[in-house]
């Protein structure tokens, strides 16, 4: 027979704070919004529905870890592409291996994954989009116009 007992934390040991998923996710959303502006302007709406559907099944903790890994990889790519992936001490080896695979993704595949995370963030936190998008941003309008001209003419017009 199993016995259950309550385990008490010693009074001098501080509780481990739980991460504030919402505020951290807002930072991720803001960075992904800037990174993906051109991608979102040229991507078909509702593309990749099966992949995005899978993200809805992740727990808050699982999605937090995935979005953290995508955000970290985005920051690594933005800062200096020459910096190699470095494992993070304290993470499970499988997670470090997944982060290493993220680092090896070609840009187009990374953009696909980043957009999936972006859309899942907007699904889980719809207020993020409302806070940052009173209408199309100037950058979004310019990017959409640019890609429309490139697609129509096949040439970049400056």
How would you describe this protein?
It comes from Fistulina hepatica ATCC 64428. InterPro entries: GIT_SHD, Spa2/Sph1. The protein has 158 residues and is an all-alpha fold. The protein has a domain at 21-130. It is 65% helix and 0% strand. The protein contains eight helices and no strands. The chain has helices at residues 21-35, 37-42, 49-56, 60-79, 93-104, 107-124, 126-132, 138-153. It is globular. 13% of the residues are buried. The model has no long low-confidence stretch (mean pLDDT 81).
Provide the fold topology:
Blueprint: H1 21-35, H2 37-42, H3 49-56, H4 60-79, H5 93-104, H6 107-124, H7 126-132, H8 138-153
Give me the Rg, rounded.
20 Å
Envelope shape: globular
Main sheet? none
Give the proportion of residues in helices.
Answer: 55-70%
The overall pLDDT, averaged over residues, is 81
**First and last CA, distance:** 77 Å
GO molecular function: MAP-kinase scaffold activity
Protein name: GIT Spa2 homology (SHD) domain-containing protein
Domain GIT Spa2 homology (SHD): 51-81, 98-128
InterPro entries: GIT_SHD, Spa2/Sph1
